[in-house]
Task: inverse folding
């Protein structure tokens, strides 16, 4: 229940949704009692009734008492996006850039990696991942637009650590290394990408990645 | 909580899933999905499709993927399948086109109505066979479809056997355990209609080693197990047959089968349970079957099979009037199916036996006179072997279905040998009324 609530944020979830996630095979009035009973157990376990709020058929974590990294990440990204809209430009200003860094540092990899098999986690995991990728792209573009290749390069390396098979980040990292006139690092990055894609996905890197490597003379 | 059996995910799907590479996941599924469909590995296809359905906005829904997703719906739109077939054929995607054939055949069969539509897909198979080249997997899948259509669509057991043979040959070349088993099952079903039980026994022995092979689909494996159970049943090993049927029935995936396929498991179980006198279980299962009917009120195949199973069960439990009613309902729905006549003829046999058991001998004689020629003409000696008429009628050699009296005389002899007096008397009665 706590994991589901961590994924549903400040809006929480209706008892009906919680029931459908927790006991997909059942249904009906009995589920209401089951949710209530589970809530009692969770509150008892946490030693504080106020941590989980149940109001008007919805259940959520009390945001004033609980900090959830995934929700904090999404909130920061939302603020970055709002500020970006206010500025009206594609590149981020110093304020949003600072928030972006904070958001980036919060994302340490996929949501609930030990619960991959639970169907309900998929949608939220991918929402976080997509948001993260978008954040990396926006931050990277900002750094590239001011020719801060060093910072952009480091930025992509960090992104690769959290999202190991996203080739877009490798490609942009390779381009940064080229701009920094570090062909060996560009080659190392391409080799790392190819090795990971081959070993984990059993295929060659994407056409775009190979084309870039070919253009830069990284393919032997 | 709903869980994905990630440990059963093939690579690279699992890695793509873990790392959010939905582009490669979708591409891989569009290539592999049609193969799983050809192998009738619906559980595998369904479980690999599920993650995509959770994040549809992250996937480029190519026609191949849309087709696969449509196939997992409870009922597929027949016109839609025809459109997919035309699209894939035109694009030269033979694997996807062949998969639409499998999907359409299953869909028509599951719908249990207008079964004559199968013949249109037979034409599509012919067209595809001319264009797929020497791809053994596609050839195996297409010949399997052709065999099934010949059997269910127009009672053509010669063609069914020949196509099943070709399917076995190609599936062996393709090293596909699922299609090897499935084509053996098709052969076995056609042989059972012909009444060639020794050949079925050999076929089963030759196929058993494949059932535990990795990649053998649940559908194919359960089909072969059911065939082994049916053989046991026909040979009078009722307890053994019932145990096999139960094993398949109790498998968690069986409950998820479409009603038609589910009935091909529950029906034989009902009959075998009746045979060994598990009255409580029979009543409970019969009730379960009746409930399942309600899901598809216009599925005539379903109704036909249900009444057939209930009719046989009623005969065994010595409720001949119930059996008579089930037999009549069975004929009505078999006729409405609009395909081959095998199911209609099966039900006719129930009526014949029920009339005899009710003591309405003259009526039974008239009825039999009308049907026996059809059975003999169609070479369906199997019908004279069904348990409702006692296993006593079994074992007439292949190709020697003989006249009605011959068969029933044969039955009386076997019943007498087995000291099943009541059955022997029944067979004797049938023998008398079937005499020219």
Result:
């Amino acid at each position: 229940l706590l994991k589901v609530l961590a994924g549903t944020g400040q809006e929480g979830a209706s008892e009906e949704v919680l029931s459908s996630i927790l006991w997909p095979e059942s249904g009906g009035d009995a589920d209401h009692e089951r949710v209530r009973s589970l809530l009692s157990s969770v509150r008892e376990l946490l030693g504080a009734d106020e941590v989980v709020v149940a109001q008007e058929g919805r259940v959520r974590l009390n945001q004033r008492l609980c900090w959830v990294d995934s929700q904090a990440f999404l909130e920061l990204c939302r603020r970055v996006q709002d500020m970006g809209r206010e500025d009206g430009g594609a590149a981020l200003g110093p304020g949003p850039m600072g928030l972006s860094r904070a958001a980036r540092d919060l994302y340490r990899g996929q949501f609930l990696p030990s619960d991959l098999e639970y169907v309900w986690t998929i949608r939220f995991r991918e929402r976080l991942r997509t948001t993260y990728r978008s954040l990396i792209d926006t931050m990277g573009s900002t750094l590239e637009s001011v020719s801060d290749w060093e910072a952009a390069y480091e930025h992509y390396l960090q992104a690769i650590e959290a999202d190991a098979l996203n080739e877009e980040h490798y490609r942009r990292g390779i381009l940064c290394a080229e701009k920094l006139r570090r062909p060996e690092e560009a080659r190392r990055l391409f080799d790392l990408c190819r090795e990971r894609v081959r070993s984990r996905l059993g295929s060659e890197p994407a056409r775009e990645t190979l084309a870039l490597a070919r253009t830069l003379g990284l393919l032997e | 909580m709903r869980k994905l059996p990630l440990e059963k995910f093939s690579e690279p799907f699992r890695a793509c899933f873990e790392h959010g590479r939905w582009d490669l996941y979708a591409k891989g599924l569009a290539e592999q999905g049609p193969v799983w469909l050809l192998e009738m590995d619906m559980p595998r296809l369904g479980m690999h499709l599920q993650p995509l359905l959770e994040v549809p906005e992250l996937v480029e829904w190519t026609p191949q993927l849309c087709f696969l997703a449509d196939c997992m719906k409870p009922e597929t739109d027949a016109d839609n399948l025809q459109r997919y077939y035309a699209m894939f054929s035109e694009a030269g995607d033979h694997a996807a086109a062949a998969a639409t054939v499998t999907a359409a055949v299953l869909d028509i069969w599951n719908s249990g109505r207008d079964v004559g539509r199968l013949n249109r897909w037979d034409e599509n198979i012919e067209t595809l066979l001319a264009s797929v080249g020497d791809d053994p997997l596609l050839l195996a899948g297409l010949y399997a479809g052709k065999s099934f259509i010949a059997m269910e669509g127009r009672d053509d057991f010669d063609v069914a056997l020949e196509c099943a043979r070709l399917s076995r040959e190609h599936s062996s070349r393709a090293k596909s355990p699922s299609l090897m088993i499935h084509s053996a099952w098709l052969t076995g079903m056609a042989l059972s209609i012909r009444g060639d039980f020794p050949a079925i026994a050999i076929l089963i022995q030759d196929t058993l080693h494949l059932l535990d092979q990795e990649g053998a689909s649940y559908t194919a494996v359960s089909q072969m197990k059911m065939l082994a159970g049916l053989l046991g049943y026909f040979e009078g090993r009722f307890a053994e047959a019932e145990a096999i049927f139960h094993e398949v029935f109790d498998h968690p995936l069986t409950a998820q089968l479409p009603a038609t396929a589910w009935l091909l498991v529950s029906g034989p179980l009902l009959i075998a349970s009746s045979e060994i006198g598990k009255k409580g279980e029979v009543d409970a299962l019969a009730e379960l079957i009746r409930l399942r009917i309600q899901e598809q009120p216009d599925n005539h195949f379903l109704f036909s099979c249900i009444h057939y199973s209930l009719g046989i069960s009623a005969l065994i439990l010595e409720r001949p009037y119930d059996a008579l009613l089930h037999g009549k309902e069975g004929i009505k729905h078999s006729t409405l199916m609009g395909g081959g006549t095998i199911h209609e003829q099966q039900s006719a046999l129930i009526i014949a036996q029920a009339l005899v058991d009710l003591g309405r001998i003259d009526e039974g004689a008239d009825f039999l006179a009308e049907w026996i020629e059809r059975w003999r003409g169609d070479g369906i000696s199997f019908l004279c072997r069904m348990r409702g008429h006692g296993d006593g009628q079994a074992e007439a050699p292949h190709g020697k279905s003989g006249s009605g009296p011959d068969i029933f005389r044969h039955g009386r002899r076997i019943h007498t040998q087995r000291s099943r007096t009541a059955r022997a008397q029944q067979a004797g009665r049938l023998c008398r009324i079937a005499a020219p």
